[in-house]
């Protein structure tokens, strides 16, 4: 009886933190309220991602057209991602203390202001274009961490365990949809306004995304918690310790690091490959990203039914091997018309794998420590991006980005053949142990 009482009390505490009605366990506002909140949640995520895609379209082209060097793209990519790595653990702590919505709104507003400042500098001092874009990219990179942590923190507040896969697939599909809308908007905007004014369009999208999250649940801020160095270090240590102790999360982080390193090399060099190696116009670069996003529309329609019929495990495996096969084809592609479909298929496979990645990790991390664990988890994942940029910066001009991608693609296939089954088996074991523990508490 004591165990059951404790379980009920713990359930109430979690429910209060997650914006859930204490007596009934239902989301505050009922089903209609949840649907409205989900729409606002998805809209804010989509607008932020569309803005990111517009920036990702404009900035590499502006830098490459100004310097004509693929190595500059690599070093710019590395410079942009390094600050984000430092920010992720602290962003996870902020999301745990804040709850997510408040942090998202503030940081999205900050992103809009950064872009406005970059455009003003470029207009006043045209000779500072590349340094201004790199500096702005680094500042935006710092903002990515709290935005991602806010989204991770909001998902459990809007969905129960049985709905987490659906909400995570919604987030993943918003990313793909943004890859359709963002480049399409960027192509039209670049033709009408020019590439630099596109950054003001992205700033407006960031600002509106901040407004859409204003009505989302905002738990009371943990007023008693300060930012004393000892307390901050203790929370950071807790996050790292839990990530290492939760074996499936650690294995998943290592696998994700490898994937991001390999895929990052192709993403970094994408603008140079399309416009320089394959001699395609700028519009082809935008259409390539838009084609990836169109598949997001199909995913958005098909994924809920597919999840009910198949489950996240087979979807993750299919996505991983589709990504590997398409990556190798892109690395060997002799022309744009071979490269483009392979690049699209690679990112579609990555998106399918990410549904498994995002769904499973949330299930095995204690909700009260989710942000603290996801901070170092993201740091481990994204450490690969600046490394990919440095690889392109150092080796891209000598051995070529495609040959480098081919070597890394073969490495990913070999590592994935071993690590993916181990990771999935570890998740099954952890989830089974959790279910057994819940049954014992109830009985």
Automatic annotation (TrEMBL):
Biased composition regions of type Basic and acidic residues, renumbered to the chain: 12-24
Compartment(s):
Cell inner membrane
Looking up InterPro entries in the UniProt record yields: MFS, MFS_trans_sf
Q: Outline the segment boundaries, as ranges, of region: Disordered.
A: 1-24
User: Where do the TM regions start and end?
Assistant: 39-64, 70-91, 103-123, 249-272, 284-303, 310-330, 336-356, 377-399, 405-427
- Give the record's GO CC terms: plasma membrane
The record's GO molecular-function terms, alphabetically, read: transmembrane transporter activity
Q: Where is the composition biased (Basic residues)?
A: 1-11
Q: Does the keyword Amino-acid biosynthesis apply?
A: no
Q: Name one Pfam family in it.
A: MFS_1
Membrane topology summary: Multi-pass membrane protein
The record's keywords, sorted A to Z, are: Cell membrane, Membrane, Transmembrane, Transmembrane helix, Transport
Q: Which domain of life is it from?
A: Bacteria
- Put simply, this protein is called MFS transporter
UniProt source species: Nocardia ninae NBRC 108245
């Amino acid at each position: 009886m004591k165990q059951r009482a404790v379980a009920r009390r713990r359930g109430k505490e979690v429910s209060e933190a997650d914006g859930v009605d204490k007596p009934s366990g239902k989301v505050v506002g009922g089903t209609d309220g949840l649907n409205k909140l989900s729409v606002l949640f998805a809209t804010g995520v989509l607008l932020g991602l569309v803005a990111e895609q517009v920036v990702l379209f404009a900035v590499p082209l502006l830098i490459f057209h100004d310097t004509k060097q693929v190595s500059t793209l690599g070093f710019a990519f590395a410079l942009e991602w390094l600050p984000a790595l430092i920010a992720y653990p602290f962003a996870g702590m902020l999301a745990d203390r804040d709850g997510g919505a408040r942090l998202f709104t503030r940081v999205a507003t900050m992103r809009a202001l950064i872009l406005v400042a970059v455009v003003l500098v470029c207009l006043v001092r045209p000779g500072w274009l590349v340094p201004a874009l790199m500096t702005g990219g680094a500042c935006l990179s710092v903002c990515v961490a709290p935005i991602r942590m806010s989204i991770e923190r909001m998902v459990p507040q809007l969905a129960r365990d049985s709905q987490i896969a659906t909400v995570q697939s919604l987030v993943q599909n918003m990313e793909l949809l943004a890859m359709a809308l963002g480049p399409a908007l960027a192509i039209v905007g670049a033709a009408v306004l020019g590439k630099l004014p596109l950054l003001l369009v992205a700033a407006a999208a960031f600002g509106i995304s901040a407004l859409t999250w204003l009505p989302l649940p905002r738990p009371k801020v943990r007023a008693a918690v300060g930012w004393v160095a000892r307390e901050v270090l203790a929370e950071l240590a807790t996050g790292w310790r839990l990530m290492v102790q939760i074996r499936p999360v650690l294995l998943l982080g290592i696998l994700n690091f490898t994937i991001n390193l390999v895929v990052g090399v192709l993403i970094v060099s994408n603008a140079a490959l399309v416009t320089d190696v394959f001699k395609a116009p700028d519009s082809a670069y935008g259409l390539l990203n838009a084609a990836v996003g169109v598949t997001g529309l199909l995913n958005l329609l098909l994924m809920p039914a597919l999840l009910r019929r198949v489950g996240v495990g087979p979807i993750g495996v299919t996505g991983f091997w589709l990504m590997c096969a398409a990556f190798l084809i892109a690395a060997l592609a002799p022309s744009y018309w071979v490269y483009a479909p392979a690049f699209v298929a690679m990112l579609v496979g990555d998106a399918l794998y990410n549904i498994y990645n995002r769904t499973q990790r949330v299930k095995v991390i204690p909700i009260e420590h989710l942000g603290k664990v996801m901070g170092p988890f993201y740091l481990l994942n994204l450490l690969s991006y600046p490394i990919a940029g440095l690889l392109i910066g150092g080796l891209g001009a000598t051995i070529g980005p495609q040959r480098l991608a081919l070597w890394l693609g073969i490495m990913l296939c070999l590592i994935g053949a071993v690590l993916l089954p181990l990771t999935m088996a570890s998740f099954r074991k952890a989830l089974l142990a959790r279910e057994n523990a819940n049954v014992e508490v109830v009985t």
